[in-house]
Design a protein that fits this description.
10 strands
Length: 287
């Protein structure tokens, strides 16, 4: 799933290519991606893009005198830039193409989604706050006013485990499964540690890991073409997706805890005092 760093890089990449240019056609291929009907999708056609914004993991294309085109790439979605779009409309079918946006220059981009769980979403709205997912977003962790006191206030009384709290978009915007693993590894904290139990010193450590991990990931991604962002994300991860590999900090074997539709990775030596965490899915299977 694209998370804050990749969506931020996409925002910068697209700002250079679409701002000041007119959208001439928006061609839906998978109707299921459209989550709004008023204004219609065609309402953005004939309008110039004036800005590209990021709200958490959402991309917002603001148009001059027209509505906003907002998209969320979900778990398996992606944006592919085309210096020259193919001639003729795309053919509906079972392929990954979900929506095409054509600019007056002949350039444009495709939104695609792999897999069978179709969650990619496109909205046409008068205000981004009309998108439910945007309206409920918590603060952006890279915003200038997001300081230690803000993080402490968010986690105060939070009875969930740190892994779940960091992934909650209504608590902190933009952090998903991969970067929550990376942040907790950098902070040397167990993903199962209760958020409300953190001491002021641990809040400081988590804050530094949160800002540092995301800032470094944004810096690695900035300036890359859209097609290279996925590979860059994977190479920059230290523990997420690296089950069975040695931890780059201490050399211990990275372990995994599986859930129904996701998994987390961590280093026992760095994060849990050398103790492996219980894999609850496997425990249920062994009963």
């Amino acid at each position: 799933m694209p998370e804050l760093p990749e969506v931020e890089a996409l925002k910068d990449f697209l700002t250079e290519r679409v701002v000041g240019r007119e959208i001439v056609r928006v061609l839906p291929v998978a109707i299921s991606v459209l989550k709004t009907y008023d204004p219609p999708l065609t309402a953005v056609e004939g309008h110039e893009v004036t800005a590209v914004h990021r709200f958490g993991k959402f991309l917002d294309f603001r148009t001059e005198g027209g509505p906003h085109l907002v998209t969320h790439l979900a778990r398996a979605g992606w944006l592919h830039w085309r210096d020259r779009l193919p001639d003729g409309p795309p053919r509906p079918g079972k392929g990954p193409l979900a929506l095409r946006v054509a600019l007056e220059t002949g350039e444009g981009f495709d939104l695609t989604e792999a897999g069978t769980q179709k969650r990619l979403a496109v909205y046409v709205v008068r205000d981004p706050a009309e998108v439910p997912g945007v309206a409920r977003l918590g603060p952006d962790p890279l915003a200038p006013d997001f300081d230690e006191a803000r993080l402490a206030a968010l986690l105060s009384g939070e009875r969930r485990q740190l892994k779940g709290a960091l992934r909650d978009q209504s608590l902190i915007a933009g952090v998903g499964n991969a970067y929550s693993d990376e942040i907790l590894h950098a902070a040397r904290m167990s993903p199962f540690k209760l958020a409300a139990s953190l001491t002021p010193a641990e809040i400081h450590t988590l804050y530094e890991a949160l800002r540092g991990t995301l800032t470094e990931a944004v810096d690695r991604s900035r300036g890359l073409a859209a097609g290279r962002l996925k590979a860059e994300k994977k190479t920059g991860l230290r523990v997420h997706g690296r089950t069975g590999e040695p931890c780059p900090v201490c050399g211990d074997t990275i372990r995994e805890v599986s859930f129904s539709d996701s998994s987390l990775q961590y280093c026992p030596t760095c994060q849990t005092g050398g103790k492996p965490l219980a894999d609850r899915r496997m425990s249920r299977l062994l009963k």
